[in-house]
Predict the structure.
Amino acid sequence: MPNRYGVVTSLFLSMLLALGVYARVTAEPANEQPVDSCDYSCLTGFVDQYLKALVAHDLSQIPVTDHVKFTENTIALKLGDGLWGTMSGMGTYKLYFADPQEGAVGWEGTIRENGTAAILLLRLKVVGKKISEVETLVHRNAQDAQAFEKLGRPNPVWLQPLEPSEKTSRQDMVRDANSYFEGILHSSGDSVPFDPNCNRILDGYQDTNNPTAKGWFDKGSFRPDAMGIRENMNTGIWTYIQSIDPRRYLVVDEKMGIVFGVFMFNHPGTVKWADVPGVGKVPMPAVTQRPSSVEMGEFFKIQRGTIRQIEGVSIALPYRSPTGWEASGG
Amino acid sequence: MDRRLIAMVGSTTLALIAGMVVPCVALASSRTPSCDRACLDGFIDRYLEALAVGDSSSLPVTATVKFTEDGQRLNLGDGLWNTSTGKGTYKFYMEDVEAGEAGFFGTMREAGEPVILSLRLKIEDHKISEIETIVVRNVQDAQNLEKRGHPDPLFMQAIPPGERASRADLVKTANMYFSGMQLNDGKGNYPFTDDCDRVENGAEATNNHTPSTENVIAEQSNSVESSSRQKSDVTYSAAWGCKQQFQSGLLHFVTRIRDRRFVVVDPERGMALAFCFFDHAAGKTRTFPLPDGRTVTSGPTTPWTWEIAEVFRVEHGEIRRIEAVYHRCPYGMGSGWSNWPESMSTQAQFFATSLER
């Protein structure tokens, strides 16, 4: 699979398919071969070039292939539409990750849109020094964007390259990240190789080991956001997530130990409560009682075969929305 | 969908593009309407009864029945079928006997809370072949609709036989609403009666002098800024009538109204129901001149789209009543019923009978 899903070898993919893990992993036709002529700094340079052009609303500042594909929040748009018409400046939070082997690069950061803070998650595919794919998630919530900016800078673990002894294979990195989703679906944090210091920050908020956070499921002394991520997952509060499908692994940054992907969380609205060990039945909040999907752009720091840190950005979507990147062309 | 793509410029254009629709003409002219008004309403009732108990197994559906909820194709039985807990009290039935299409605006209960349902069924050989739904999950909007009790009785009044418009002319008039709103400049031909009224998700969107509902659109649009006058001078108002709203030029920020599918056309009642999308690009089009020459900056500051079902009562070539059900969706989203060119098109599409081609 010499394409953007090439991070998973055929053999490994077959194994995961057999396990039902990659139920809807799709592969684009390999019309454009990734080239290795764009190294790590070249790829992050494309991100900078794209963002600069975006602020200037000037498509001519970026080199694109003839059939460049662009999506914003899963919808295929003409490059130049959507955020290209409204971006008014950069924010202060930013994080890069790159995959020279696949010509893939990602960026999470804050921006200004007509003067209002928002979160942008960007993925570019670069082929022959031209951009062939642009996938964006724009989380339009100023408070969440400001929460990211209040953090000042990304957690240092994201910015620290792996030592040789901390590295694992690309396949193992994806497998470890994928175990997180299996853990959610099976309420089994114990099956996920979490580092004891692992925390998760979603849309700017840390929802693990955070004693001051107020969560949907708080009930008396039951405070899931104050728990560690393993314990949090073991509670079963995530059972309203009935499937995480598709799971598209798009960037494997071997240098930094980062696995990035875009994942569709589907909520049929049928789960009424969580049966929390030691607590009993905890009612699901009203927002989970109706069909919905949430697309997460999520990335994992994989260090010594453990998940050291998780961060992500979400967008709310109609139930069972496609990603815009299905094999059929979305 | 079994429908024609018609450029709503007039009958000349209709004739000019007739060649484009020949393959579909044969298909359309071969079918004989077999489900009358009561029959179509009956299918809606059966659907709602089944939906209320979350059991689709009793519905007569074709082997290839297609179901969408909020623009997404689902298996019949998924989506609201999983979460519905009962019927609501508001019911607005619409019928297109010629096309075999039934439309419905109403309320349901989902997890015990009221929601608005916009429903379209296509009936073929007494089976349901297409199911299109929009579910507005907003309790207040649903309660507003139920407080109205029933649709405006005007929608149900028969047009005297000698005064009935053709299907094409009904669509043409209703489509002028969309064309007049898209990049609205206040200078178009807006075919509204003087007593025209519009209801949106249960709220009076015109001639509404309740202070709390004034400037509804302005508030929804995030911000309204004036470059030359006080905001009150250039703020769109729900207190205005249909024509005044369009003549204000203040709806310019609706940058595109696309995928205009007129799915129910009923000449007997002067009714046309369309599903479509209102895009707000929120870019340069936010700043625009008003008819009086002033320049304003107004409208959404981020790109987003309304997914809409909107029905029109047309009399003597003018729009007298409008009712809409809508909610916000991702910018540029498709309906699940159109290919890409249709989805992006601003032309009206409808089922034309053989007599009108």
